[in-house]
Amino acid sequence: SLSVFCFIAFGISVAVLGTEPVSGNVTMREYTELEGEYSDIEISTSVANIAIYPTDSNTTKIFTTERLAKSLSAEIKDYKLIIKLDHGMHIFDDFFGFIASLFDGGNKDCVKVYVPDDLYEKIVINSNAGSTEMINVAAKDIELELSAGNLTYAQPEGARATSLSVHLSAGNCTVYNAQTDKFDIEMSAGNI
Asked: Which of 44, 49, 57, 120 lies in disulfide reach of 110, CB 3.0 to 4.6 Å?
């Protein structure tokens, strides 16, 4: 019944949207470089793979695939890094590119974010579809919400979060070295 429908819907979304690893071989270009201090990170995307990594630099660098550049916005406002990707109808601006992506292994659209290596107050990532990867970025409060896709989270060695919240409707969740005072992990379909 409903669980069969969810399984079929997940299968269709994986076939159409793909679950290409974020670290796959994709041609990237620099979208922007931001300077400024922030304690919170908020990333919201509709249909794309997203990755967030630490860097020794004091600036934030964002890289993306060519098709996503026009749908991406990034700013530092009120001590918060805000990245939004509303792929929405822009996906049809390059209709033939979208159709070709269905036959060459799925969704390879990707955003990679390199943030200064620091302890952040809060990180929130919300993705409707695609793989999400957060490797060695430390925060006190972490909220990761995905509708469909794969999630990989690796906490830096020696870091301890106050809370880690993972909500995944369908896909796979892999968490490494997660030390936290409070866990909240919910999945409807998939593997942990």
From this structure: 49
